[in-house]
Write a structure and sequence with these properties.
By secondary structure, the chain is of the alpha+beta class. Helix content is 33%, strand content 32%.
């Protein structure tokens, strides 16, 4: 294992083994790591081990051969095969959901003031905020004050009681890019416990590196990839559950195919591997089979 380059925040995911694991070597030739290429940004490369765990390695610590591979077309093809999950739904503690792409860690102050009988949040009128942001801000105030605030009027009353003194709440969490394209800073305390197991682990390391912009970006890179793998595997597990419910008399198979330099994973119910491969090729005509494995047996 390339020990010096591992980042905190790696997490076991549910996908199982993958098709194109290659051996990566450090510049000394002493340390080796098998894994699929998930992402790299010129400074950091993210790999997915056969167990599903993500590890991050410094590009300049890799062998010359591996650095050359990162610049090659096969690397780009492999990265495209690990492309972003389209389902980017996050669940809040109250059960509501929000769709957004995780961008990075961050923290900021939320300042609420009252001017000309209007409630302003960081100089933006409360009335101009969408319902999701209003909900999130009420949760920020509730967290900061130690009691529940459900309405804008309750927040206004709090400001009046403070004789106009601004309400300032420090917020730590992740920056989301909502499906509308707008950025939104989402505090950790909004998320469900399950989602926090993915989003929170690298936070302490990000804080420790707050004066080192490169290390902060490395932690955010790892966060983005962990979040993406988490969402992809949620989608895979959901499909598997649906297939299991409808396939009492069949095994479930995962078939990995390639066509025109792109990979795809297909989960199908079938009585044997040959049938599974035929069903996969029916979905992707002209593709080639890379691997086939059984996910569960019917008995």
């Amino acid at each position: 294992m390339l020990r010096s380059s591992l980042l905190s925040g790696a997490i076991l995911l549910l996908a199982g083994s993958v098709a194109f694991a290659r051996e990566w070597t450090d510049s000394t030739g002493k340390f080796k790591q098998e894994g699929d290429l998930v992402d790299f940004d010129g400074h950091l490369v993210v790999l997915k081990k056969g167990s599903g765990q993500l590890v991050a390695l410094a590009v300049d610590k890799l062998s010359k051969k591996d650095q050359e591979f990162l610049a090659s077309k096969p690397a780009k093809v492999e990265m495209k095969a690990c492309s972003e999950c389209k389902d980017r739904t996050w669940t809040m503690k109250n059960g509501t959901t929000v769709k957004g792409k995780v961008l990075k860690y961050g923290r900021r102050d939320v300042t609420i003031t009252r001017k000309d009988s209007k409630l302003l949040v960081n100089d933006i009128s409360w009335s101009d905020l969408d319902d999701w942001r209003k909900y999130a801000l009420l949760q920020v105030v509730s967290q900061g004050e130690g009691k529940e605030f459900k309405t804008e009027k309750q927040v206004e009353s709090l400001l009046v009681a403070q004789k106009g003194k601004p309400l300032v709440y420090p917020v730590a969490g992740v920056m989301l890019e909502l499906d509308t394209g707008e950025p939104f800073p989402a505090p950790f305390f909004l998320f469900s416990e399950k989602d926090l197991t993915v989003l929170e682990p690298g936070w302490k390391a990000w804080l420790a590196a707050e004066k080192d912009e490169q290390k902060k970006e490395d932690e955010s890179t790892m966060l983005r990839n962990l979040a993406n793998e988490y969402q992809k595997n949620k989608a895979i597990e959901h499909r598997i559950q649906l297939l299991r419910a409808a396939s009492d008399w069949f095994d479930l198979w995962e078939v990995v195919v390639t066509a025109n330099g792109e990979m795809a994973r297909v989960v199908v119910p079938a009585r044997d591997s040959l049938t599974a491969e035929m069903l996969a090729l029916k979905k992707y005509p002209g593709a080639s089979i890379l691997s086939t494995r059984i996910l569960n047996r019917r008995y």
